[in-house]
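Can't paste images in this forum, so I'm doing it all in text. The chain is below; anyone willing to post the predicted structure tokens underneath?
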Amino acid sequence: MTTVSRTPAVLAFVRSALVGLAASILVLAPSGFAPQASAGPLNTAPPPSGPPTTGYWEVALDGGVFAYGDAPFYGSMGGQALNGAIKGIVATPDGRGYWLFASDGGVFAFGDAPFLGSPAVPSNARIPSASIAGMATTPDGKGYWLVNASGDVSAFGDAADLGGVGGMNLNKPIIGIAATADGKGIWLVASDGGVFAYGDAPFYGSMGGQPLNQPITGIESDTAAGGYWLVAYDGGLFNFHAGYSCGSLGGQGYSGVVGMALNAPNLGYWLVTSDGSIFALAGFCDTPYYGDISGAHLDAPVVAVAQS
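Text version of the structure:
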């Protein structure tokens, strides 16, 4: 596969923060966001001295990949012809590779990520109900699931066929999928916050039927705690039997949050917005901020983030 290298640009802005005991933090927001006083602590300080011990990748709608911290760049689909838009990025369990997946079901493997199959049908990119919405990997990285907006789940490699909500009358489309730590269960989430559990995945609750300021844009499995997080377009976070909460952007006037990644096995997490801004939620956590692609010219918006 021919790939095009995309080198991250130097940040075009500097975030500064005044931090005090139990004080709020003033964030100088990136272009397109109004400055807000955030009650959720943001880690804007440089990472600890010495080589980074973790990192993350951002991926754009056109398949461009941008690597930060200790995350290696293994390739991208930037500049390549695609039948469907890239919807997300999933890291391999050892962090030495990643998959990109597209709305038409196309799967693109980089690094040590194996290509195990794809439900790709070119016309899917033009049929909203058949558009691929999410992807999750098995614990050994030798299998994965893809789910479409209707809730149909396709399993590949050693991923078990655990079912899905395909055929059910959904209030809102499915937008994401996450797997349990043992790979024997999956959760699906809809944009209204409805959560559907299969296999050995326990149902710990959802935001379905609850008032939301903005729709849900992603789900992240907390394999240590056994639960899951939901993230909304305004940066609101909803914890269901997941780990320690390090704050959120909800209620601070932000928008454009398209995904999150956990800083496993440490505390904390990163949120990413469509302009490429990374927000490292800190609080009593130790989430490092390694930079982001915001402020640079992007050919397409950022759609997801994954931990290396």
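The mean pLDDT is 84. DSSP finds no helices and 20 strands in the chain.
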